[in-house]
């Protein structure tokens, strides 16, 4: 009996001792770390998502895991390292190095931001000394898409480091376990993808330091796409250097070059409409005290001869532009440039975004050469967003819109906290005169320096630009090439800028940027049209066919009038003489002067010129004449050559 009692007491003693050991061990471990799978602490916020205008998620917060190790608990460090390496983004040697490095510690974090599926696989191995904690991580589902715009957060998703994440950090950050509001952008992911694809094609092989592509709705100011190259994957932001992460659309300052000519032309045309009847002589160089400006083609001086304002814009003539801009004074030119927004930030993003304001000297600092250099885009710097904003004012009839990237901000319960407002400033521009400027820009694309941007499917207007880059030591052999375009030509709804910065001297806006513009616009035509945001391909094709039928009907009506006039004409002369008389009737031509060929078929001009053998006819384009040189009413004796521009 005593022996049984003794054995029972010994058993209970051993049991109690074992319980104390387990309890002590648990207390010990509890002092090191929580053995359970832990949720984020009360201070951890759930960051709100960023979505595009189609509600496609561009940045989301999801639950993730941290894998930690307790060196005192590792029974076989080499075995543990080898198995963990099969699941984590590191090799077994690196894991083993950390184990030995931190062997004096009770616990350390091996890897953060591990997806939960992988973390669960690791925990299923039941390796001694391997533990898991829960946290939140920021994920960018589309990878590089719009990365320079979105920016990124640190390992802690509440730590915004760049881009929209940083600018809207206070908006996106939730409170406790509450999810932050959703930030909806004006950007369309499909347009963004196609912009980046086209831009990248030109970027590769061009030697450019960077590239920017922006698309804007000129009626609302909504930015539909904004691409930057080089770019990066914000999911792995630490793999790229800082140069790949900049939002150059709002930070890059560059000389706009010849794209500035359309702004100078707008000022001159608005102030001096009679300039349309003036002609300017380009001998290839414009000398002035202290310097000179040349027109160059393939590095050699090019004389354009006599040009009107149409020809100056179409052929991108520096000398002619300087002379035309000299018809208005410094204060007037400066006033218009300020109206175009070239002295202020666009406000496309809130304060703190890093947007720069470019550079334009104050009026009091202008000297003679300032008035010569500014109209051709030298001595002034702009940001890509500034340039496109000002251009939108030209093509929309004169409203300077504030660009917007924020569509709306919506709380988790669906309450709209903030929403984009269309904000605009009036300018002095007269819409009817800007329509004339649009025709000039149409000539740039149809027959001028921007021919590579021309499309059969839709009429484009635009302007090319090539500008030499400068440094502290002066101008260097690197260039910025650009193309500013808008469509459809008759009533522009969308404006696009394609810019390559830091290319070699063998590149130009017409040769590099314009083809990329054309490729991008062609790729998105099934998605957009002049008066609606998105439509299907069948609808687009129906409207295209309808336009072509209207053009054909117009041509048939013209042919019918020719037949009727031919029957009315009683003449014993030759067929050429009859055609000449018909042309004179249609043109209402007066003897001894150049007729007005505008809005008439090229064929009519050819029939008229057949009886004027002393005049050389030069036709660019086909269809109907929209511009001519010399002007109507010019004496025939002063017109040895007749230049017609048709479309």
Automatic annotation (TrEMBL):
Q: Which GO terms describe its molecular function?
A: carboxypeptidase activity; penicillin binding
Q: Where in the cell is it found?
A: Membrane
Give the record's GO biological process terms.
cell wall organization
> What's in the GO CC field?
plasma membrane
> What keywords sit in the KW lines?
Carboxypeptidase, Hydrolase, Membrane, Protease
The organism's superkingdom is given as Bacteria
> In the UniProt record, does the keyword Ion transport occur?
no
Name the segments for region: Disordered.
Answer: 542-575
Residue ranges constituting the Penicillin-binding protein transpeptidase domain according to the UniProt record: 214-520
Read off the InterPro entries from this record: Beta-lactam/transpept (IPR050515), Beta-lactam/transpept-like (IPR012338), PBP_dimer (IPR005311), PBP_dimer_sf (IPR036138), PCN-bd_Tpept (IPR001460)
**Compositionally biased tracts (Basic and acidic residues):** 542-566
Domain Penicillin-binding protein dimerisation intervals: 45-165
Official protein name in the record: Penicillin-binding protein
Which species is the source of this protein? Leptonema illini
């Amino acid at each position: 009996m005593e022996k049984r009692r003794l054995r029972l007491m010994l058993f209970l003693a051993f049991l109690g001792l074992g319980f104390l050991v387990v309890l002590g061990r648990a207390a010990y471990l509890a002092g090191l770390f929580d053995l359970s799978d832990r949720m984020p602490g009360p201070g951890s916020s759930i960051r709100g998502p960023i979505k595009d205008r189609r509600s496609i998620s561009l940045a989301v917060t999801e639950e993730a895991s941290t894998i930690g190790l307790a060196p005192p608990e590792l029974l076989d460090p080499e075995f543990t390292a080898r198995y963990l390496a099969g699941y984590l983004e590191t090799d077994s040697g690196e894991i083993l190095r950390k184990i030995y490095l931190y062997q004096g510690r009770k616990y350390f974090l091996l890897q953060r931001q591990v997806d939960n599926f992988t973390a669960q696989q690791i925990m299923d191995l039941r390796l001694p000394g391997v533990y898991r904690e829960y946290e939140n991580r920021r994920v960018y589902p589309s990878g590089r898409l719009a990365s320079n715009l979105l920016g990124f957060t640190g390992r802690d998703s509440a730590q915004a480091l760049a881009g929209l994440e940083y600018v809207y950090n206070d908006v996106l950050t939730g409170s406790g376990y509450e999810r932050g509001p959703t930030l909806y952008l004006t950007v369309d992911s499909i347009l963004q993808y196609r912009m980046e694809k086209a831009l990248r094609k030109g970027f590769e092989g061009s030697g450019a330091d960077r590239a920017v592509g922006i698309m804007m709705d000129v009626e609302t100011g909504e930015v539909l796409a904004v691409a930057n190259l080089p770019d990066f994957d914000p999911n792995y932001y630490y793999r790229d250097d800082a140069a790949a992460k900049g939002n150059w659309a709002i930070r890059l300052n560059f000389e706009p070059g010849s794209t500035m000519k359309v702004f100078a032309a707008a000022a001159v045309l608005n102030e001096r409409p009679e300039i349309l009847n003036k002609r300017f002589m380009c001998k290839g160089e414009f000398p002035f005290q202290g310097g000179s400006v040349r027109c160059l083609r393939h590095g050699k001086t090019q004389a354009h001869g006599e040009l009107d304002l149409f020809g100056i814009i179409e052929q991108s003539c520096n000398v002619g532009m300087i002379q035309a801009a000299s018809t208005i004074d410094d204060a007037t030119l400066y006033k218009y440039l300020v109206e175009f927004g070239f002295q202020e930030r666009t406000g496309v993003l809130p304060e703190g975004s890093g947007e720069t304001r470019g550079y334009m000297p104050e009026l009091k600092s202008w000297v003679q050469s300032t008035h010569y250099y500014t109209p051709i885009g030298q001595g002034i710097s702009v940001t890509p967003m500034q340039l496109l904003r000002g251009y939108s004012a030209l093509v929309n009839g004169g409203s300077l819109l504030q660009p917007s990237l924020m569509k709306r901000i919506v709380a988790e319960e669906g309450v709209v906290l903030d929403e984009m407002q269309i904000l605009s400033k009036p300018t002095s521009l007269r819409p009817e005169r800007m329509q004339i400027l649009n025709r000039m820009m149409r000539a740039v694309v149809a027959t001028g320096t921007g021919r590579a941007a021309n499309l059969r499917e839709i009429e484009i207007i635009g302007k090319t630009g090539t500008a030499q880059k400068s440094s502290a030591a002066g101008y260097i052999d690197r260039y910025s090439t650009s193309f500013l375009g808008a469509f459809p030509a008759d009533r522009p709804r969308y404006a696009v800028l394609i810019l390559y910065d830091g290319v070699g001297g063998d590149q130009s806006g017409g040769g590099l940027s314009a083809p990329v513009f054309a490729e991008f616009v062609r790729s998105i035509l099934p998605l957009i049209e002049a008066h609606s945001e998105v439509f299907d391909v069948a609808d687009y094709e129906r409207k295209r066919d309808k336009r072509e039928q209207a053009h054909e009907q117009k041509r048939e009506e013209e042919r019918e009038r020719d037949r009727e006039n031919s029957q009315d004409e009683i003449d014993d002369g030759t067929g050429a003489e009859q055609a000449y008389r018909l042309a004179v009737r249609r043109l209402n031509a007066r003897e001894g002067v150049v007729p007005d060929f505008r809005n008439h078929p090229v064929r009519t001009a050819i029939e008229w010129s057949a009886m004027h053998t002393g005049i050389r006819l030069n036709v660019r384009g086909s269809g109907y004449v929209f511009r001519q040189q010399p002007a109507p009413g010019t004496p025939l004796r002063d017109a040895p050559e007749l230049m017609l521009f048709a479309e």
